[in-house]
Every structure is written in structure tokens, then in C-alpha cells.
Specification:
There is one protein chain. The protein is mainly beta. It is built from one helix and 30 strands. The strands form eight sheets. Strands 1-3-9-6-7 form a five-stranded antiparallel beta sheet, with no helix packed on it. The protein is flat.
Length: 388
């Protein structure tokens, strides 16, 4: 064999070797996946919707693969969304699905989802998750939520109000699309001392005629309101309806703290969790609201609410501190070396003797929980923990 023939033979051998080395290796066929849920359309986009619309949709999941599958639980990412599972029978009828029931290949699970957009604004997607044996699967609702009504402001805080005084506030309610509507107050959840007046407005903001695209809502609080903190929802409804037929509504709020000639703020002393041996303080402010009354330092003491609790006064230091420039005193309660009791929590009250004829005594609940000292030292810290 000549040199040329030898070179040709060598090249052929190398080429054959390269083809053999680059040929794919024989592989074992992949094992078929186990049974699992598949949804052909796991996402639906409702586009722009009005706030308060109910968005209903049915997602259909099918079991594919070999074996059995089961859904142990279904969860929505918000309380505004409800999901109900139904299994499809051989005849196409639907019946409620019981969590954990086995599903075979080809079985279809229908997920009925209802999303209430009340209180939502802008892009507000919601997700429903099915927790199955082979892993979690999800369905999603997309929506861009727009308000049909706007209320300005959403809340009016009237602050402190003497029970002998009256007060008023107002809101503006407008259609975002400029469409006239009728407005009605439902009169729910408000006492007789609270009255609501509705006035339609014209384009210049002056009183006009109904229906109108803009309204003024006046809320009047009469004298003689019960003392204490109050939140009044002003429920308003229109003659316009959502896609599901319910009326379009709005609810602004009025908040107020009604007081007598004197008050305590805050109205209670919550100490929370107190490690044994720690020094802890809380303060409430005694305020005299009646300018005709003379400001005098009140007398204070602690009382037990439950006889079985330890004697609170034995572990407390009380201080009455005048507030410069105000008709008020700070009442400070400091606990130290509190004992651990079986129940753990204690309940008492701070008694404030005002010296006023109209309201001689004010009370503030005193609560807390004493935990054993993790360090075991039982020695109090050098500085007390205080509120406000």
C-alpha cells in the first residue's frame, strides 16, 4: 500500500471513530408522570370593572397522567374571594367535591370562584390555590378596579366632643363618570342622635336638583351623645347597579370621642406581657374639659376586679403629675416585682376620684400578663418600661 492509500485508509478510520463517539447514547425511556391536575385556561382577565362588582368565573381542572390524585384543600389569597370545588360525573352533572377524595385519569374538577371587589382599587389580581398530592396548582383572576363613586374625605374625625355639645361635618360624593344618580341614606348603624342630610349639587357646587352627579352629605351629632369612643358608618346607596344587580354604594365614617366634664385618655392601661422582675409603667391622662371647673389633683388608687388575683396595690407605685400649660394631670402606674400566678393574667382598675360633683369617679381597666423570668434572676431592671 502506498503512502496515499495509507493516508486515505487512516482518514476513513478516524471518520468512522468520530461518528461512533458522537452517536447518542441509548437512554432509558422517561417514566410517565404521575396523575396531576392541569387547567387549560388557569387565568382570566376581566379588564376594567367597577369597585364592588362581583366577578364570577369557573375554572376546570382535569387529571392527566397515570394513577390517582386528590385535592386536600383550596385556599384564596384574600377573604374577598370564595372558591367552591365540584367534581364532574360521567353524565356531566356536578356535585360537591369532598377534600381528599381520589380522582382518576380524565376526571374533571370545576372550581367556582367569586371575587368581591369592594374596597379594591387599581390592579387587583386574586389567586386561588389547590393543594394536591402532586403539588399545588393555581388559578388567577385579573381585574383593574375603578371606583364609580368617590367620597371625600373617607373619614371625618371629630376628636373630643363634650356630651353637652353638638357637632357637624360633611362629605362630598361624586360619580367618576359624571353620570347623575339618586342618593339615599340607609339610616343603618347610627343612633337617633345622628342625622344625615343629602343635598344634590349643580356643576358650580351650589344646591341643585336630583338626580345629580355630585352630592353634599351633612352629618349632625346632637347634644347628649353617650360618652365613649364612637365610629358611625354613614351607609349611602344609589339607584345605579353593579353587573350582578346589587346597588352601587358608598360608606364614609364619622369618628368621635364623647366626654363629660373630665376624661381619661387612654381609657385603659394595658401592660401586655411582663417578665417577672421587670419594672413597667403605663400612663393615662386626666383632662378637665369644662373651663368653669377648678383643676385639682385627683386622688387615685388601684382595686382588684378578681379576688383571687394578687393584691395589685402591693406591687404598684402611683404618681399624679400636673401637665404644664394644660388642664390635665398624668396618672402613672408603675409595677415592680410582680409575682407569677397560675392564670398568668391579672385584671384590676385604676380608680380616679375627681372631686367633681357631676362626675366624682372615673375608672380605667388595668390588665397584663406576668411571665416567669427566663433568666431566673428575678431582679428588676434599672429603668421602667413606659407607654407613650
Amino acid at each position: 500500500m502506498g503512502p496515499a492509500a495509507g493516508r486515505a485508509a487512516g482518514a476513513g478510520f478516524l471518520a468512522l471513530s468520530w461518528l461512533v463517539s458522537c452517536a447518542p447514547e441509548a437512554q432509558n425511556p422517561a417514566e410517565p408522570p404521575g396523575a396531576h391536575l392541569v387547567c387549560a385556561e388557569p387565568e382570566v382577565d376581566f379588564g376594567s370593572v367597577w369597585e364592588g362588582d362581583l366577578l364570577d368565573h369557573e375554572f376546570v381542572f382535569e387529571v392527566v397522567g397515570d394513577g390517582r390524585e386528590a385535592v386536600e384543600a383550596v385556599r384564596a389569597d384574600c377573604g374577598c374571594t370564595l372558591a367552591q370545588l365540584e367534581v364532574e360525573g360521567p353524565d356531566g352533572s356536578l356535585s360537591p367535591y369532598e377534600n381528599g377524595s381520589p380522582l382518576g385519569t380524565g376526571d374533571r374538577l370545576h372550581v367556582q370562584v367569586s371575587y368581591n371587589t369592594h374596597g379594591k382599587r387599581g390592579s387587583a389580581p386574586r389567586t386561588v390555590t389547590l393543594y394536591a398530592a402532586e403539588g399545588a396548582v393555581r388559578a388567577r383572576i385579573l381585574a383593574d378596579v375603578k371606583p364609580w363613586l368617590t367620597v371625600t374625605p373617607g373619614t371625618r374625625d371629630l376628636g373630643l366632643l363634650r356630651d353637652s355639645d353638638s357637632a357637624s361635618c360633611d362629605f362630598r360624593v361624586k360619580s367618576t363618570v359624571g353620570e347623575p344618580f339618586q342618593l339615599t341614606h340607609t339610616a343603618k348603624a347610627v343612633p337617633p342622635e345622628v342625622t344625615v342630610r343629602l343635598t344634590p349639587l349643580d356643576a358650580s357646587g351650589e344646591p341643585g336638583s336630583a338626580p345629580s352627579a355630585s352630592w353634599r352629605v351633612d352629618v349632625d351629632l346632637a347634644a347628649g351623645m353617650p360618652r365613649g369612643p364612637h365610629v358611625y358608618p354613614i351607609e349611602l346607596t344609589t339607584d345605579q347597579v353593579h353587573r350582578h344587580g346589587a346597588p352601587i354604594t358608598a360608606t364614609p365614617y364619622v369618628t368621635v370621642q364623647v366626654v363629660g366634664p373630665a376624661s381619661l385618655t387612654p381609657a385603659s392601661l394595658a401592660f401586655g406581657i411582663i417578665p417577672a422582675g421587670e419594672i413597667v409603667s403605663r400612663t393615662t391622662r386626666f383632662v378637665l374639659h369644662d373651663p368653669t371647673l377648678e383643676l385639682r389633683a385627683p386622688a387615685v388608687h388601684l382595686e382588684n376586679v378578681r379576688p383571687e388575683d394578687f393584691e395589685l396595690s402591693s406591687y404598684a407605685t402611683l404618681r399624679v403629675l400636673e401637665v404644664p400649660g394644660e388642664r390635665a394631670f398624668d396618672l402613672r402606674v408603675t409595677f415592680s416585682d410582680l409575682p407569677v400566678i397560675p392564670k398568668g393574667n391579672f385584671l384590676g382598675r385604676l380608680i380616679v376620684e375627681t372631686g367633681l360633683e357631676e362626675i366624682p369617679v372615673l375608672e380605667a381597666p388595668v390588665t397584663g400578663v406576668v411571665l416567669p423570668d427566663a433568666g431566673g434572676s428575678g431582679s428588676p431592671s434599672s429603668e421602667p418600661t413606659q407607654n407613650g
